[in-house]
Amino acid sequence: MPIEAGHALLAAERAIPAVEPARFRKERRAERESPGHERCLAIADDKGTVLWGSAGLRQRLAAAGLPFAERDPCCTALACSANTGSGGERCLTRLALADGAGLSPRRWRSPDADVEAALAAMVVPAASGAIVVFDLGFLDVDVGHVMNRPVADVEVRALGPLSVRIDDRPMDGDWLQQRAGQTFRYLLASRSGAARPEAIANALWPDRGPAAIANVRYCVYKVREQLDAGNRPAQSVILRSSGGYRLDPQRLIVDVDIFHAKVSEGLEAQRVERLDDADTLLAEALELYRGDFLADEPYADWAFTEREYLRSLASKALAARARIAVAHQRLETASACLLRLTQLEPFDSQAHRLLIGVCLRRGRRTEAVRHYNALRMRLARAFGEKPDFDLARSAVDITSIDV
User: Fold this and answer.
1) N or C end of the chain: which has fewer CB within 10 A?
2) Are residues 157 and 281 in the same domain?
3) Which sign does the torsion angle of CA 346, 351, 355, 357 carry?
4) Number of domains in the chain
5) Residues 379, 341: one domain?
6) What totals of helices (H) and strands (E) does the chain contain, helices first?
7) Residues 137, 192: one domain?
8) Residue 260: CB atoms within 10 Å
């Protein structure tokens, strides 16, 4: 076993029982005390590569038709696609890393559904990056009673106008435009932590005073009514704790999170000069960016910070794709990326300069002049300034411009 994996295993032995529900711990304890039992553990690095698996796990997976080998992707070894929601992140390692603390116990099935277990995961810091420790409890009884978390089923598109689907069924409707929809939007913007009822009330209805707290409770009830159909109350999309209300990250597939992950991976791939991988990841991310975060709530102060951050990420992704396209002489792709970039960043002189240069390289002189004049008038109206570059020189060396 790798040294870091060994350290991770020791940490997980102490930490995983602490996150298991009491009834689940009781079942697992009985199983561990049974003759010949060996704990079923697997360890993966932050890229999803399996570093180690216990003998008990190997035996159980082999019986389920899943041959286990070190250095395999976790998605192969642990059948990730069969145990994650459709339309979102399909890797258990990435889901664990996205949550930060790992995965609460959830049902795990083999692809043919003949073998079931309760799976939990713990994220452990390591010198070379985080390591994820998976703990699978293969029970020889029906695991339906185990208090596991559900597979993510609520798909939220928040880049652009808000849209919600459950198992590919659209859940949009009047409720999204009413107070329940406003509450859901606020919780979505605050999904990294719990939001106190007072904070929700002050943000959404600051003029209503203490009476707004009752509004919050009622709106939470209405959101649950819309999105919890067919689920037990304990599996509600909105969790309640002493800190307030929060959306259950185990039930959510949010386009914002997928977008963020793909942009980060794409920019890192570009940094290490894996340009084909970078271009693919950035293109996939930009397909998700249909507009600003919660675009149908444009004046909400509580959404401003995330909206601007995501807009800046989209700008970085577009600039990176444009640089890659220019380097490979894919000028049509570069032009499309730069046009979109200048729409996001209308006063970014360097982006406009590169766009005009690409237009001139493609022989689109009229288009280049039109972009230049639009920038000139925009700068004059807003700042009383002129562009800091000359139109005639824009095609000289577009590869030297740093967007």
Assistant:
1) N
2) yes
3) positive
4) 3
5) yes
6) 14, 11
7) no
8) 17
Using CB atoms within 10 A of its CB, is residue 301 exposed (0-12), middle (13-18) or buried (19+)? exposed
| Cα(259)–Cα(289) distance, integer angstroms | 7
Burial environment of residue 31 by CB neighbours within 10 A (0 to 12, 13 to 18, 19 or more): middle
Torsion of CA 161, 162, 168, 172, to 10 degrees: -100
Distance CA 98, CA 89 (A): 10
Residue 334 CA, distance from chain mean position: 26
pLDDT at 403: 47
Write phi, then psi, for 369 (nearest 5 degrees): -65, -40
C-beta separation of 394 from 371 below 8 A: no
The whole-angstrom separation of Cα 108 and Cα 80 is 9
Q: What's the alpha-carbon Rg for the chain, to the nearest Å?
A: 25
| Same domain flag for 115 and 254 | no
Domain closes at, from 328, 355, 387: 328
3-state secondary structure 336-366: HHHHHHHHHCCCCHHHHHHHHHHHHHCCCHH
**Distance between CA atoms of residues 32 and 45, nearest Å:** 26
Q: How confident is the model at residue 167 (pLDDT cuts 50, 70, 90)?
A: confident
Whether residue 225 is found in the same domain as residue 193:
yes
Q: Are residues 196 and 233 in the same domain?
A: yes
176-210 per-position pLDDT tens digit:
999 999 999 999 999 888 899 999 999 998 887 77
Residue 270 belongs to domain spanning: 152-328
C-alpha atoms less than 13 angstroms from C-alpha of 174 in its C-beta half-sphere: 0
253 and 369 assigned to the same domain: no
- The two structure tokens encoding residue 145: 């009673």
Say which residues have a Cβ less than 8 Å from residue 124's Cβ, sequence separation at least 6. Answer: 7, 8, 11, 12, 15, 130, 131, 132, 133
Judgement on whether residues 117 and 59 belong to the same structural domain of the protein: yes
CA 109 centroid distance within chain:
23
